[in-house]
Amino acid sequence: MTAVLSSIRRILLGALIAAALLLVAFGPRGVEHAPPGRVVVTYWEKWTDFEGEAMRRLCALFNDTVGAEKGIYVDYVVTTQIDLKTLIATAGGDPPDLAGLWPHNVSSFASKKALTPLSRAADAGIDEQKILPVYYRQCFYHDTMYAVPLTPWSLALYYNQDIFDEFADQLAAAGYSADRPPRTLEELADYASIMQRRDSEGRIEMLGFLPGVPETIGWYWLTWGLWCGGDFFDPASQRFRIDTPEYICGYQWVRDFSERIGVREILRFESSLANFNSPDNPFMIGRLVMVQQGPWFANMIRQYAPEIRYGAAPFPTHDGSEISYCGQDVLVIPAGAHHPDEAWAFIEWLYNAGPVNVPSGKPQPQRGYEYYEVPTSAGVERRPMPAMPPIEWLCWIHYKNSPLREVSEAFRQTHPNPALAVHDRAARSPQARTEPPLPNWSELLGEFLAAYRDIWAGKVDVAERLRRSQQRIDELSELARRNLERYGEVYP
User: Fold this and answer.
1) Among residues 329, 300, 262, 338, which one has the least CA distance to residue 417?
2) What percent of the chain is predicted at pLDDT more than 70?
3) Domain limits at 277?
4) Antiparallel, parallel or unpaired: β 204-206 and 144-145
5) Residues with Cβ < 8 Å from 440, sequence gap 6 or more?
6) Where would a tag sit more exposed on the chain, N or C end, judged by fewer CB atoms within 10 A?
7) Would residue 218 count as lying in a domain?
8) Domain at 255, CATH number
9) Number of folded domains in the chain?
10) Beta-bridge partner residues of 115
11) Does any domain span residue 125?
C-alpha cells in the first residue's frame, strides 16, 4: 500500500493534498447504523434521481439476501465529482470499497496504482465469454482487468417521425422518404436542410440537425472522425491520431454544415434553448428534428414528450456502413479498499446471481419494480415485472442495452426502450468504436476540443487545424510516456 500511496501522491502534489483535507471534513458520508455484525462496504456512485434509486434498491436487495448470509452490508453513497474524490481518498489511504467511474478513469487510475486488479473475474466467469468485447476491452489497462461494466450504451440517431411526416412532400421531391432516416452524412445534411424553419427575419425556429455548439447540446463532438471510418487509436503508431483523412473528412462535414446554416444564426438559436435534461429540450418541443444520443434519450422522451412519435437508427456515416460508438459506466475496487473481498462479493452477485425481483419499497407499485407496461389497443396495460439477473435489471431501469453476450428473454421482451435493438446491434458490431485506454485521455481530448471549437466556428482550415492539434497531442503523449517510464510504467 505504501507504493500505491507514494505513486499517487507524487502526481497529485500539494493541490490535491489540500483537497484531501476538505474531503475528510466534508466528503461523502455513509450509513450511520448498519445491522450489527455486518462488514460495511462503502460504495460511492455518481447516480442520482431514478438511476441512483435503482442502484440503491439493488444494494438493498443484496443486503437482505446474500449480504445477510455473508455478513455484508453495501452502503450506497451518492458522490459528486466522484473521479476526483475517489482518487484523493485513495491517496489519503481511506478510499471507498467500491466506486462507479467512467472508462477513461480506468487507465488513468491504474497507471497511478490507484485500482485493485480484478484477478478473480476470470475464475468467476466474468470474462470475454460473458461480456461483449466492446465493453470488456474498456475494463482493462494493459493486460490487467480493473473494472466491470455497469450500464453500457451506444449512440444512435433519434428522429421525430411526426416532423418527418410533415415534410414528406419536400423529402420526396429531393428523392428521399419520410419513412426512412438518413444513412449517410450527405443524406443527413440534406434532411437537415429540408426540415428547418425560419421566421420572417431569417432567424432559426427549427433545425433538422445540429452537430452541436461545443460543450452545450453537442455532447458528442468527438465522434465525427469515426463516422468517416476513423478510430481513436492508431495501432501502427501507437498514438491518438486526428490528422488522418477520416478525421479531416468528418470535421470538414461539421465545418460545411455550420457554414451552410450560418454560425451566427446557430449561436443565436442555441442561446434560446433550455437545459438538455428538461421538458424544454429542443427535441421535446419540436425545435430540433434529429439528435445524436444514447439510450437514455428514450426515457427522456417518455418523461417530457410522450406524445412524440419517434424512431431510432444507426447514426449516418460517410459511406452508409454501420459504425458505432459505445461507452459505459464501470465499477471498480480502489487500491487500499478496506474490504476488497466483500466488495468483490457484491460484484460477483451482480453478474452471477440468478434472476431476481427488485422491490421498490414504496406503498404503491412502481414501474420497473413491481410491473412493466405494455401498449395495447385499449391503452397501456400493467403486467407483473419478470425476474432477471441483477446487472440486466439495472440496465433495464436505466433504459440501456445489456453488456452481456447472452441476454435473457425477460430483458429483451419487456425492455421499455423501443430502440433497444438498435443500441444492442451497435454494441455487437465488429465496427464498434470506443475510447482508447490512454492514461492521459482527458488531457488529449482537451487539446482536441480546442481544435473543434475553431473548426465549428469556421475560423480555420480543417486539415491544417487538425495537423496543428496533432502536433500538440504528440507532445502531450511523449510527455506522458516519459513521466510513466520514470516509474517503470509503459505508455500507452
Assistant:
1) 300
2) 92
3) 162-326+437-485
4) unpaired
5) 108, 476, 477, 480
6) N
7) yes
8) 3.40.190.10
9) 1
10) 334
11) no
Q: Give pLDDT tens digits for 65-108.
A: 999 999 999 999 999 999 999 999 999 999 999 999 999 999 99
SS (H, E, C) the chain: CHHHHHHHHHHHHHHHHHHHHHHHHHCCCCCCCCCCCCEEEEEEECCCHHHHHHHHHHHHHHHHCHHHHHCEEEEEEECCCHHHHHHHHHHCCCCCCEEEECHHHHHHHHHCCCECCCCCCCCCCCCCCCECHHHHHHHEECCEECEEEEEEEECEEEEEHHHHHHCHHHHHHCCCCCCCCCCEHHHHHHHHHHCCEECCCCCEEEECCCCCCECCCECCHHHCCHHHCCCCCECCCCECCCCCHHHHHHHHHHHHHHHHHCHHHHHHHHHCCCCCCCCCCCCCCCCECEEEECCHHHHHHHHHCCCCCEEEECCCECCCCCCEEEEEEEEECECCCCCHHHHHHHHHHHHHCCCECCCCCCCCCCECCCEEEEEECCEEEEEECCCECHHHHHHHHCCCCCCECCCCHHHHHHCCCCCHHHHHHHHHCCCEECCCCCCCHHHHHHHHHHHHHHHHCCCCCHHHHHHHHHHHHHHHHHHHHHHHHCCCCCCC
Q: How many CB atoms lie within 10 A of CB 360?
A: 17
Q: Is residue 347 part of a domain?
A: no
Residue 58 φ then ψ, to 5°: -65, -40
pTM of the model: 0.93
Rounded Cα–Cα distance for residues 288 and 210 (Å): 8
Tell me, yes or no, whether 208 lies in a domain: yes
